[in-house]
Amino acid sequence: MLAFTGSRLDRADNDRADPERLAGYMNWRARLLALDGLMPGMDQAGALAWGTLADAPEDAELVFLGLDGGKPCFACVPAAGDAAPRLANPAVWQAMASLTPDDLAIYGGARSIVDWHARHRFCAQCGGTTRIAKGGWQRECNQCAASHFPRTDPVAIMLVEYDGRLMLGRGKGWPEGRFSALAGFVEPGESIEEGVAREVLEESGVKVRDVTYIASQPWPFPSQLMIGCHGYADDDALVVDETELAEIRWFTREEVAASLAGDGPFAAPPAQAIAHHLLTWWRDR
Predict the structure, then answer these.
(1) Hey, what's the signal peptide range on this chain (predicted)?
(2) Structural domain contains residue 7
(3) In what helix (H) or strand (E) does residue 91 lie, and over which residues does it extend?
(4) Which of 148, 165, 185 lies at the terminal end of a domain, its last residue?
(5) The pTM is what?
C-alpha cells in the first residue's frame, strides 16, 4: 500500500451539505485530530492523538474529516499554512516513518485540507474574506458569494526506459548519490501522457513514447496527486536542464535492485514515496 492511501474514514459526502446533520455531529462523541500547526500530534504509543471539540479554540474553523466507526472526526484550521513547494522538514519525514499506514492516510488528508483553508481566507475573484462551508470542503466569499474548492495539483512522476536501463535524476541541492524518477506538474491543456513527454524532454532532452499509467499517490505537501507513469525513450543522449537538476544518469536493472536493497550505486527514494514503489515495480517486471 502506498503511503497516504487507505484511510479508514467514511467521508460522508452527503452529510457535508446538510448543516443540521453537521451540527448534530458536533457532540460529545466527536473527535478532534491533534495538530501542532500542520504537524501531527502523537500519543505515547506513537499513534495519531485525538481530543474532543472542547479542545478547539473558541473561534476555530473546523473541518469535518468524516466518520470513524460512526464517530465524527474534525480538525482545526491552523493560523497559517505552508506555501513551501517541497517537503523539507525532517520532523515530517520522522512522523511519516513512524505512523501506521492507516494513521498516515488520515493525517495526509487532514493536512491537505486544513492547509488549503489556512491559505485561502480571501477570495481569488474579488479579494473579500471567505468563510468555511460544506463542512470544510468549500469556502464561500462573504462579498461576492463566489465558491472556492480545495485544489489538488496533478504531478506526473515517470520512469523512462531505454535498452533495459532506467533514467533517474538528482535534483539541485540533493545529497550526492540521491537519485529518483523525474517529475513535474501537468500543465493546463495537457493530458497526463503529454505532460510526461514534455517534462522529460525539458529536463533531459530525451523524447518519450508509449507512456502508460502505473499507480498514483496523494502527497500532502501541500496537496498534490503523484501520477506514476512509465515510458520508453528513443535514444539515451542526455541534455540536462541544469536549472532544475544536478545530474541525470542511466541505471541497469541490477543497479536499481542493488540500490533498493541499500547496496547500490545510488541512494534510492524513501519507502513512503511513490518513486520507491515505481522502482520496485520496474525491478520486478
Answers:
(1) none
(2) no
(3) helix 90-98
(4) 148
(5) 0.94
Residue 33 to residue 42: CA distance in whole angstroms = 10
How buried is residue 197: exposed, middle or buried, by Cβ count under 10 Å (0-12/13-18/19+)?
Answer: buried
Query: Cβ(151)–Cβ(112) under 8 Å?
Result: no
Rounded-to-integer distance, Cα 257 and Cα 132, Å = 48
Q: Quick check: 238 and 245 in contact, CB under 8 A?
A: no
pLDDT digits (tens, 9 = 90+) for 194-253: 999 999 999 999 999 999 999 999 999 989 999 999 999 999 999 999 999 999 999 999
- What is d(CA 268, CA 264) in angstroms, rounded to the nearest whole number? 9
Identify the pLDDT of residue 127: 97
Residues 12, 66: contact at Cβ < 8 Å? Answer: yes
Determine contact, residues 35/248, Cβ cutoff 8 Å.
no
Which residue range(s) make up the domain with 38?
A: 13-148
